[in-house]
Amino acid sequence: MVTQPDIHPGDCLLYSGTSLWSRVIMIKTWSDISHSEVALNEHYAITSRTSHGVNLYTLTWDHLAHVLRPEGPIDFGKAMAWFKIVKGEKYGYWQALRFFRMGKENMTRMMCSPCCTRLYRAGGFHPFAGDYDASLVAPRDFLTSPHFTVVWSRDVESTH
Predict the structure, then answer these.
(1) CA of 81: how far to CAs of 1, 75, 77, 86, 119, in Å?
(2) In this predicted model, what pLDDT tens digit does every residue of 36-75 receive, in sequence order?
(3) Which of 123, 120, 90 is nearest to 108 (CA)?
(4) For 109-122, how does the pLDDT look when each residue is reduced to its tens digit (9 = 90+)?
(5) Exposure winner among 13, 72, 108, 119, fewest CB in 10 A?
(6) Short-list 24, 10, 13, CA closest to 80
(7) CA-CA distance, 97 to 13, in Å (whole number)?
(8) How far, in Å, CA of 35 to CA of 116, rounded?
(9) In terms of C-beta density within 10 A (0-12 exposed, 13-18 middle, 19 or more buried), how is residue 133 classed?
(10) Residue 69 is part of which domain span?
(11) pTM for this entry
């Protein structure tokens, strides 16, 4: 049986989805990760989902693959001020073109990983180089950032 991980504010939650869109992201990025969120607490997370765009969502345990803990402080006051400005913006389907380095950075419509990257940056935490286009960040990129520690993985947990 897989136990639920201990979630802290600011944790990066990575998911392996099963929808067609999730499969497209996983194929394009050569990864089993298709979605990212930033936890506010053990009940809620901020992200951009296809259903309602950038918003506060009830945290889901379905398909959770990894929990990453930021190795630096996050100013949640500043991060939440940014969130209030972008809350409700639509999901950025066309932003997927940035994975192919087509088009330009879109600041109004966001997929999940650019949303998480910008939330972290607004709070003073930089998981990637400060000038790196957030639209180019894929969900799996959080796993390779040296600024996070993996504190829980489904595959590791399920083998115990």
Answers:
(1) 39, 10, 6, 9, 10
(2) 999 999 999 999 988 899 999 999 998 999 999 999 999 9
(3) 90
(4) 788 999 999 999 99
(5) 108
(6) 10
(7) 23
(8) 10
(9) middle
(10) 12-158
(11) 0.86
